[in-house]
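[job 4417] fold queue: 2 targets
>>> target A
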Amino acid sequence: MPGELDRFDRLLERVLEALPEELSTLLEEVPLVVDDLPDKEICLRMGLRHKLDLCGLYTGIPLTGRSVEHSGTLPDVITIFRRGILSAARGRDGEVRDAALRRQIRLTVLHEIGHHFGMTEEQLRRYGYG
């Protein structure tokens, strides 16, 4: 598993480097945190049965919902979960190929960025990021 996590981190760097400049700039303002798995509180709040079911999480107030009343709130954060993404990228044969892992990392990062911009799950699915 340690080798797989190192590979994940290396591919994440490649995905982030390939993002359009507008999105890369956004990630300078909204931190991207990498964790292995969501904690028990997140799983309970989201109604998850298995920790591996969650690939990413946007925490904050979407740009479309902000007002002057939100000053002093905690900063936005995008968290991606290594083991959830690895699980989602695993093929039927149990292998995680680099191309599938890069695709799943990119999808997860773009999905959570979409939430930052105020997109709903339905909108994200419609645009292919669900």
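>>> target B
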Amino acid sequence: MKQINVCLIEPEIPQNTGNIARTCAVTGARLHLVKPFGFEIDSAKLRRAGLDYWDKLDITYYDSLEDFLRQRSGDDLLFFTQKGRTGFSDICYGDEAWLVFGKESCGLSESLLKDNIDRTVRIPMREGIRSLNLGNAVAVAVYEVLRQEKYEGLKRRGILFESE
């Protein structure tokens, strides 16, 4: 089973981070949070969005983007941006998938994207519409990695009728 790592660079909205934490908890993905945050990590809004999932997460915190990049220098980081070169479903994700997302207001910095142009990834969207909500974009990416692995390690739940 692949290990999925979701990294949020300077997240600003606690509800988005909480929803992403929930996605990570239910899929077994690791969550990596890069400071500074636009909220306090003990924010009630953050806890409410992630609620009973927060204690089921594997979370790593980084003091800055530089700290994250230094610690992850040998990893195959994929930078999600609407300006990405490769479609998210055209990637063959490695044994350890690293999905990196920017802050809600402006995404990842231009300099970071230029330095990693061959590792930029996009989720297709209609022209003229800004972007997906960050929580939705993370969920789309995580579930693509899982789909490629035929959802290995996830229990099938909620089946109403078994085939005869």
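[job 4417] complete. Note on B: The chain is about 30% helix and 20% strand.
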